[in-house]
Amino acid sequence: MSLLKTDQELTRNSYYVATAPRTQRYAALQDDVSADVAVVGGGLAGLSAALELRARGYSVVLLEARELGWGASGRNGGQVIAGLASDISVIEEQLGTAAARRVWDMTVEAVNLVHERRARHAIDCEWQSGYLTLAVNARKAKALRAWQEEMYLRYDFQSRWIESQDMPRWIVSPRFHSGVYDDFNGHLHPLKYTLGLAAAAAQAGVRIHEDSAVTALQAQAAGALTTLRTEARVVGRDGVVQGSVRARYVLLAGNVYQQGIARALEARIMPVGTYIIASEPMDPALAGSLIPSGAAVCDTNFVLDYFRPMQDHRMLYGGRVSYSTATPMNLAESMRRRMLLSFPQLKDVKAEYAWGGFVDISMNRAPDFGRLSERTGDQGHANIYYLQGFSGHGLALTGLAGKLVAEAIAGQAERFDIFSRIQHRAFPGGRWLRTPALVLGMAYYRIKDLL
């Protein structure tokens, strides 16, 4: 089953889609145009880059194969967090402590950038401060406490340790042993935020085309223009409508949805399905008692759960993963049972919405940014940039990534190149065997989570 067909199933019952009506649509590309920069992908990374590039005076065309925010940008858990999906030690081991500190500081900048853009563009996306990182047992609590102390001593990240006996003040759940709270991170409505950035980009002069799938990327000699060819189905027109963009620079920001455009990148990421439910509205007193601070929550398991209270007195609960493109059976009920492990007091609360989507994980869970020439050895690809491998930790980082690409295109590539130096390996097993290999590996980590 293709990602597109599965996505159509997974977005059918999305809380975000139901509560963020699309008031603006963008016509499909139906002719041949040119621009300084062509951006492929209408999620947070692509929109961020487009905004930053327009601010620097570049003409920009953004191409989205479906509709803006279709992928992970519009379906995620809504958690805005500093850091990476990988442990910062991955960066330290590869790049050294000084570069790792710069990477960490940039992820802090990424969270601040969300606030800056919310304010500048008047985006109402239901921001709530506060974040809880929780351990499910004493062994994991020891590791979490060590992480908290290290992050304070080495990275100046301040947070509050929560002892077991104090946990009921922070979360009313039998599942969690102890944890860490910080008021820097938080959560928001990701689709409202994405659509707000899109409106800002369009107002700034970015030419946005939805329903415009890129079918081919034709790079010429170094320094020459690159041509992107598109296909679209347009209401009132028979067959497929074709278009093209000729650009000095290209940004590939479609992650798992740009299969076939740049084969050299595909083996470096794996599409992994993750799933979320939103409960029906609860009595406000019950809803407010579950997580009194209103914080977002994530546990420290490798295969983790993440959840947060909503402003309309629902619980949004995410977790479980899938390594095939098939939607899990009985998705809503299976996720509701998962929610009850954390909150048995919700046994009479129904799941009103259930949805999911694919995140693009890398082997080491670190982000994978670079230039296509670095993967192919062809200098004709030197002006083609890519952003991928956010590994489920991209709501804030995608925004910074777009800014770093814009800096690099404008001739200030130092910060982008710190990320491009992070080394990545292809998933083992090739195109057909890498999924079974990953399933076996994840089974090992699931067993470790139980210990």
From TrEMBL:
Pfam families: DAO (PF01266). InterPro entries: FAD-dep_OxRdtase, FAD/NAD-bd_sf. Residues 36-407 form the FAD dependent oxidoreductase domain. Keywords: Oxidoreductase. SUPFAM superfamilies: FAD/NAD(P)-binding domain (SSF51905). One of its GO terms (molecular function) is oxidoreductase activity. GO terms for cellular component: cytoplasm. It comes from the Bacteria. PANTHER family: FAD DEPENDENT OXIDOREDUCTASE DOMAIN-CONTAINING PROTEIN, SARCOSINE DEHYDROGENASE-RELATED. This is FAD-dependent oxidoreductase.
